[in-house]
Amino acid sequence: MSLIYPRACEACEALLYKHEEMICNSCLMGLPKGNFHKHKNNIVLQILGGRVPVASAASLYVFEKGGKVQRLLHAIKYEGKQSLAIMLGKLLGNELKEVDGFCNADLIIPVPLHVNKLNKRGFNQSEVFSKGLSEALNIAVDANNLFRQTETSTQTRKRKYERWENVKNVFELKNKNALKNKHIVLVDDVITTGATIEAAWQALKEVDGIKLSLATIAFAEK
């Protein structure tokens, strides 16, 4: 089968060896890591500072336009490579096993898609990524409480203010009491300006005693 359908690295398209899964070892070693969880005052926290009280933030990779991380994200989002999202979730989860702010969290909550977009795509990439995190960290995923009540256009190519205007007031919670005094890890695929995270926080902040950490596949500096 490998002769007819050769397995290629999702990041660089090089042929994979038998022991390699989806991403070649060279890319696994060379992809630009975020490592933000190793720094208390990292760039993600700075972006959200004063707007969203995030205790800890982590991004597996740094996004570069036209780079290998973008290829991975496109493979997940537009080619339906859900197993790749799970793999990346496990990779980040394994790095966070001993990190305060993640290993002691109560729940993982993926940023939801609107039901129309979910039905069209067939899956939520943030939720699938969350499954890999959940497996590595042994923390349950709650993908039903936070929901997107309004369908919005894509954030791509929007400026900072336009991104915020596009997503403000679009998220709601079904059951606030279920999250009372919980430490949650909010998960998205990419963070750029933090507008989507801030919009989600507008719903989450109504919960008494909630504590928030953030995990994403990638960070893209605007």
Quick synopsis:
By secondary structure, the chain is of the alpha/beta class. It has helices at 25-30, 43-48, 68-77, 82-95, 115-121, 125-137, 160-167, 195-204, and strands spanning 54-62, 107-110, 146-148, 171-173, 183-191, 211-219. The protein has two domains: 1-30, no CATH class; 32-219, Rossmann fold.
Tell me about this structure.
There is one protein chain. The protein has two domains: 1-30, no CATH class; 32-219, Rossmann fold. It has helices spanning 25-30, 43-48, 68-77, 82-95, 115-121, 125-137, 160-167, 195-204, and strands at residues 54-62, 107-110, 146-148, 171-173, 183-191, 211-219. The protein is globular. The model has no long low-confidence stretch (mean pLDDT 91). Helix content is 33%, strand content 17%. By secondary structure, the protein is of the alpha/beta class. Strands 1-6-5-2 form a four-stranded parallel beta sheet, sandwiched between helices.
List keywords for this structure.
Rossmann fold; four-stranded parallel sheet; 17% strand; globular; 2 domains; two-stranded antiparallel ribbon; single chain; alpha/beta; 222 residues
The average pLDDT value, as a whole number, equals 91
Structural category is: alpha/beta
CATH architecture of the largest domain: 3-Layer(aba) Sandwich
> Low-confidence parts, pLDDT < 50 over ≥5 residues?
none
Quote the beta fraction.
Answer: 15-25%
**Oligomerization category of the chains in this entry:** single chain
CATH topology of the largest domain: Rossmann fold
